[in-house]
Write a structure and sequence with these properties.
This protein has 1 helix and 12 strands; from the N terminus they run H-E-E-E-E-E-E-E-E-E-E-E-E. With about 200 residues, the protein is α/β, with parallel strands linked by helices. It has 2 domains: about 30 residues; about 150 residues, Cupredoxins -  blue copper proteins (Immunoglobulin-like). It has a 5-stranded mixed β-sheet, with no helix packed on it. A 5-stranded mixed β-sheet has the order 5-12-11-7-8, with no helix packed on it. A two-stranded antiparallel ribbon has the order 1-2. Strand 1 and strand 2 form a beta hairpin.
């Protein structure tokens, strides 16, 4: 039989545990918001996600992803020079659709990863395959000939990078041919962030 004095002590222990869990959860949300995005329940469900305008005509949705977690290094991650340069396909850049008609094309790049990304559009010479551009000592490729980029968090055009959960968009007029869409933050191209877009 439980004594009268024992029940309130157990009740306070339970209340203490619940309060600790609640405060820990609120702390995680606060840290995520202050760092520019918190994925609650998976990629794309971000606190502070962008309000994207209606893009008319041909739209290519570009998903930017990475495996995330501690393996990405500390000190600001690969974009700021902290952490290791990733190699071997730990990141992805996917375009939907992968073939579009020539003319004006909107690119909507959405960061579904846990670190900052961007999307750059480069012509792809006939004999070249995607992912084969030379990578410099800084972990980046030469962007000479770039036709445009979406890297302005929650806005159009170039900027400082798309934060986790954020989006950026850009409109580019494309001739028929092949193009390479890529992320050119340090180490990201070498880690697998590229894909081909075919323009008919």
């Amino acid at each position: 039989m439980t004594s009268v004095g024992a029940w309130p002590a157990r009740g306070w222990v339970i209340v203490g545990i619940l309060a600790t869990l609640l405060l820990a959860g609120l702390s995680l949300v606060t840290v995520g918001v202050l760092r520019g995005g918190f994925t609650a329940g998976g990629p794309g469900l971000s606190v502070g996600a962008c309000a994207v305008p209606t893009l008319s005509g041909t739209v290519v949705n570009v998903n930017l992803t990475n495996m995330g977690g501690p393996m990405m290094g500390g000190g600001g991650g690969p974009m700021t020079g902290g952490g290791p340069i990733m190699m071997g396909g730990t990141m992805r850049l996917q375009a939907d659709p992968a073939t579009v008609p020539h003319g004006t094309v909107w690119f909507l790049a959405t960061n579904r990863g846990s670190i900052t990304h961007e999307m750059v559009v480069l012509p792809l010479p006939e004999a070249q395959i995607v992912g084969a551009r030379p990578i410099g000592g800084d972990g980046k490729i030469d962007e000479m000939g770039s036709l445009g980029e979406a890297s302005n968090n929650c806005a159009e055009g170039p900027g400082q990078g798309i934060l986790p959960g954020g989006s950026s968009w850009v409109s580019i007029t494309l001739k028929p041919g092949r193009y390479e869409l890529l992320c050119n933050l340090p180490g990201h191209y070498g880690a697998g962030m590229y894909t081909q877009l075919t323009v008919t």
